[in-house]
């Protein structure tokens, strides 16, 4: 009798345990299946970089680099003209590209509290004003997300996507339907190597060649980590003509059609090597496509031939103060602001206007091999 009771109890316990396992499995399955009604056909953008594409991550950091103050965002329709933390008057290049590719929403800032659940399947933005490839870059701003930290954060998103879609569907979605966009490197020169206060020691001990080497070794490791997390379609921008921004022209007291040679020379040195790196990764990482965006020549074309594109100036910041080109004090509530924002290549001392971003984005989406190779973004999406 005692034996019968023990066996009955064991049987009962096992049945309860089995039912519990079945219940949990069913709940998980139904959670994953419930996501099937999400339209994933348009894919997602996962955006990494600096203030050129930051969509508001720095709003959530204790940092000196912030853009969530007016009049930034004055032409950003989605916020009714209120600042969102974008370092321009309207949309960033990342916003415009996502819109053109038919993605249902802008990639949301990773640090925003509502960046949870199915919203991450439409894209997440990890970019941070002041961030760079090197971890020391942007130290002058106190806080910023370096590329290493941005990849760490994507690793968190990656696990969430597994939970939402299940492992095999998640892998397929990331590898086939998601574009990984990287716009970084300018701050490594402007707010690291070229900053006398912070980097004098580094510059004495490190030649430009060695610094560029260092940058590329770090970037290779960062891109390889993304590949290991199932990224397959990459677009990587080179560094633009940073010697031509209103800030550099103003502090160096240049004429309208002049640029500072050292920053541009460093950018070109890095850019030549970046192209080789992307070629190497295309050959060595099976199934990956690394697209090279020639931002330097694209922006230089806008600066040199601005009138052809409907601009009245490529030297003067629309929003800023100080010096001949309003290029010293960043854009804020007390700044002077131009009335014809769509006629200025530069919104503030450092960043392009929405009108310039639209032209740049158009070339990345549909342009030829002068500016984007081995294919443009629409072709990358359809791969």
What can you see in these coordinates?
The chain is α/β, with parallel strands linked by helices and 383 residues long. The protein has helices at 2-34, 93-100, 147-165, 167-177, 186-193, 196-205, 208-228, 246-251, 261-284, 295-304, 354-366, 377-381; strands spanning 44-49, 108-109, 123-125, 178-183, 233-237, 289-293, 319-320, 336-337, 372-373. It has a domain at 38-296: Rossmann fold (3-Layer(aba) Sandwich). The chain has twelve helices and nine strands. Helix 2 (93-100) packs across helix 11 (354-366), helix 3 (147-165) crosses helix 4 and helix 7 runs parallel beside helix 9 (261-284). It is globular and about 55 Å long.
Overall morphology: globular
Low-confidence stretches: 1-35
Helix and strand run: HEHEEHHEHHHEHHEHEEHEH
How are the strands of the largest sheet arranged?
2-3-1-4-5-6-9
Share of residues in strands: 5-15%
What is the count of helical runs?
A: 12
The class by helix and strand makeup works out as alpha/beta
In CATH terms, what is the architecture of the domain at 38-296?
3-Layer(aba) Sandwich
Distance between the termini: 69 Å
Assembly type of the chains comes to: single chain
- Summarize model confidence as the mean pLDDT: 89
**Fraction of residues in helices?**
40-55%
Number of strand elements: 9
CATH class of the domain at 38-296: Alpha Beta
In CATH, the topology of the domain at 38-296 is named Rossmann fold
Give the radius of gyration.
Answer: 24 Å
Largest sheet: 7 strands, mixed
List keywords for this structure.
383 residues; alpha/beta; Rossmann fold; seven-stranded mixed β-sheet; two-stranded antiparallel ribbon; 12 helices; 44% helix; 9% strand; disordered N terminus
């Amino acid at each position: 009798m005692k034996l019968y009771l023990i066996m009955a109890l064991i049987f009962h316990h096992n049945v309860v345990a089995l039912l519990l396992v079945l219940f949990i499995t069913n709940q998980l399955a139904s959670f994953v299946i419930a996501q099937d009604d999400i339209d994933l056909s348009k894919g997602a953008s996962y955006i990494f970089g600096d203030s050129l594409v930051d969509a508001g991550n720095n709003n959530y950091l204790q940092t000196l680099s912030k853009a969530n103050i007016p009049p930034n965002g004055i032409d950003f329709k989605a916020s009714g003209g209120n600042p969102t933390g974008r370092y321009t008057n309207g949309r960033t290049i990342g916003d415009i590209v996502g819109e053109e590719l038919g993605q249902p929403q802008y990639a949301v800032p990773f640090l925003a509290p509502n960046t949870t659940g199915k919203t991450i399947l439409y894209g997440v933005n990890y970019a941070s004003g002041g961030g760079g490839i090197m971890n020391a870059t942007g130290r002058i701003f106190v806080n910023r997300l370096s590329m290493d930290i941005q990849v760490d954060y994507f690793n968190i998103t990656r696990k969430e996507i597994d939970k939402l879609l299940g492992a095999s569907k998640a892998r397929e979605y990331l590898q086939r339907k998601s574009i990984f966009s990287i716009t970084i490197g300018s701050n490594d020169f402007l707010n690291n190597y070229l900053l006398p206060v912070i980097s004098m020691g580094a510059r004495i001990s490190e030649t430009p060649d060695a610094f560029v080497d260092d940058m590329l070794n770090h970037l290779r490791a960062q891109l390889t980590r993304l590949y290991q997390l199932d990224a397959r379609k990459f677009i990587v921008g080179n560094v633009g003509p940073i010697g031509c921004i209103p800030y550099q022209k103003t502090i160096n007291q240049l004429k309208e059609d002049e640029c500072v040679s050292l920053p541009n020379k460093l950018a070109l040195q890095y850019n030549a090597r970046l192209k080789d790196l992307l070629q190497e990764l295309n050959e060595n990482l099976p199934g990956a496509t690394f697209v090279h965006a020639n931002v330097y020549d694209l922006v230089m074309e806008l600066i040199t031939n601005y009138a052809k594109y409907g601009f009245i100036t490529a030297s003067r910041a629309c929003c800023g103060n100080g010096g001949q080109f309003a290029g010293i004090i960043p854009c804020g509530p007390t700044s002077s602001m131009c009335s014809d924002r769509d006629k200025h290549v530069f919104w503030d001392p450092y960043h392009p206007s929405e009108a310039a971003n639209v032209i740049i984005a158009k070339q990345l989406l549909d342009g030829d091999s002068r500016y984007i190779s081995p294919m443009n973004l629409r072709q990358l999406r359809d791969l």
